[in-house]
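Changelog-linked ticket: fe (ii) ion example.
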Amino acid sequence: MVMGYFDAEDVEPDYEVPAIEEMGDEAWTPLQRAEIEIATQPREVIENIADRAHFMPVHNTLLDDFEVIIEGPRATQRSVGRGHNLKGEPIPVESIATYHGPAIQFTRLQWAYDMVLINAHIPTEENEILLRFGVTLKAGKGVTLSPAVLEAHVAAARNGYFEDVAIWENKRWRDQPVLVDGDGPIASVRRWYASFFTDSAAP
Ligand SMILES: [Fe+2]
C-alpha cells in the first residue's frame, strides 16, 4: 500500500499511519481488495463514525455500547453489538475503527471471524471520491478456508461497508444539521475533521 500526503501549505505530516501487524501473519488470509467510485464528499464518509443511529436500520446490528474517541490526528469508533453470521445465527459483533488522519481508516472487527478492514478514500472531483477497500480475516495458522467461505465472508464485510453508499449518494449535507438524541457525537467529529483544513484549503 503506497500512501501519499498532500498539504496545501507544503508541510510534512505530523503523524504516522501504523503498519497493520496482521498482514504478513500466516494466520491471516491475503488481503482481498475492492474499489468503488462514490458520488459524495469525504466528510460524509468521515461522519459515518459518529452515526450511532444508523446501525440498526442500515446494518441490522443492535448496539449495546458505542463511543467515539478523538485523540489528536486519530478518531476511533468503538461499537459493541449483536448481529448475525452467514447462517443467520445471532452472534456478538465488536468493532474498533480508527481513522489515522482524514482519509485512512483501519477497522478491527470481531464478527464471524476476526477481520481487519482497510478503507482509504480520496476526493477525485468536488462531489466524487474513490474509495479503496481491503479485508483480511483470521482463518488460523495452517488453516485454508475454502474459496467460497472466504469470498462469502469478504463479500459480507465489504457489502456491510458499502451499505452506507446508497445513503451517502442521496443525502444532502447540512452545515447546521437538526440533531436528535441518539444521533451520536456528530459535532465533535466535524470539529476533528476540520482540524485538517488549512486556511489555503478552506473554501
Ligand atoms: Fe455504516
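Closing comment: Example verified and attached. The chain has a mean pLDDT of 92. The chain has one domain: 21-194.
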